[in-house]
Amino acid sequence: MKHFFRSSLLFVVAIGCVLLLSLPTIGQTTPESGSLSSLRIDPARLSATLDRGDLTDAVQQLEQGWKVQFDEYYQRQITLPLLSPDQIVQSLRQRAHTGKRSALIYAISLPTQLEVMLLSPDGQPRHDRHPIAASEVQATTAALKSSLVNVIARPQDYLPAAQQLYQWLIAPFEAELQRQQIDSLIFCVGGGLRSVPIAALHDGSKFIIETYSVSLIPAFSLLDRRPARLDGLRVLAMGASEFEQESPLPAVPSELATIAQLWQSEVLLNEQFTVGQLRRQRSIYPYGIVHLATHAAFEPGEVQNSYIRFWDRPLRLDQLRDLQLLQPVVQLLVLSACRTALGDPNVELGFAGLAVQSGAKAALASWWSISDAATLVTMIDFYQQLKTAPTKAEALRQTQLALLRNQLHLSSPTIQQAMRGIELPQQVEESIAGDLSHPYYWAGFTMIGNPW
Q1: Distance separating alpha carbons of residues 117 and 110, to the nearest angstrom
Q2: Of 26, 79, 209, 237, which has the fewest beta carbons less than 10 angstroms from its beta carbon?
């Protein structure tokens, strides 16, 4: 049976990347210590700050330090003011109009302990410390990711790591989250934790997405927090099914055609899929959603090593501003088909900072690859959910829940209705599995940036 792999980021980035497992091992340099992702946070100072209970200063240290990290990696100064914890809390309160109550979880793995903090709408920061070495946190996150992608050989091996990470990151605040009726969690985390597939975390009886919508941000101060309105937006759907030096993506024409039947869209395929055409189309009409169905690679090392493949050339991550998604702002970027070297600290920075660097408010992406057909099913349902969900993160959650409950597959009535009149290449139909409930198929999808 043939399998065709792809992935998605949220320009709307279509999801499903080829996974390059370069996972760190115990004894290696910690994710925060590479030359490009230097900590810029003093562990001793942060630990002492938390010892005396000054959570306000601790949050500011993290916001400042992680902003510097992204500035260094993307080689540009992000000129946004740093927010105080009080301002962050106020911003969380202001999002109540979405019908979702959001809380923010900070986590950083220091050499001898894991520090976790909660900011919630009630304005009272909370802190929990786990006396766990950074090497153990690394080993646990590596175990989770590697076991998830080995779905056939070891279908349940992900559970111990998924439950352990839940106990570290969420369980200390569970009673408080329930008291405040929180149903949306935003994760702002340090190196080694940024690539955790948050949707797969498990409390022992259920997955986190059965209780919360989840999203990943680089730093709260880096978010475009202006109100988002998706109703009435049009989609610029672009991509390629053929490549000279990379594997084909045979489902792309069907994917773009189906999106065009669900949303008012402009579709540009193969030779029309160029940076110049993207900018030209956006100069004619301010498309609020950009969907790129193409190969993208998040590679180790400097930012110039990573790219998004257009028909005529690769666009390096440090060139993302060339897309001009900031004026007028793109609400959602979706990127399809990427290769991600999980475990590399700079790859984590590139992935987590994608929305900020591109100028889009949010991006949808996946940490690993699934079949072309499974990605197609996911993207179709996501666009359907996006029409009615109160937030982008909730739209993704509803799609993930449908996959978890084995309600989504290529022959599902809703998928068949959405694809009416659109034919699939035979190799794509052959690549689909009947049961897509395993987290391998849905937990890699991650909402990055503004979740609302």
Answers
A1: 14
A2: 79
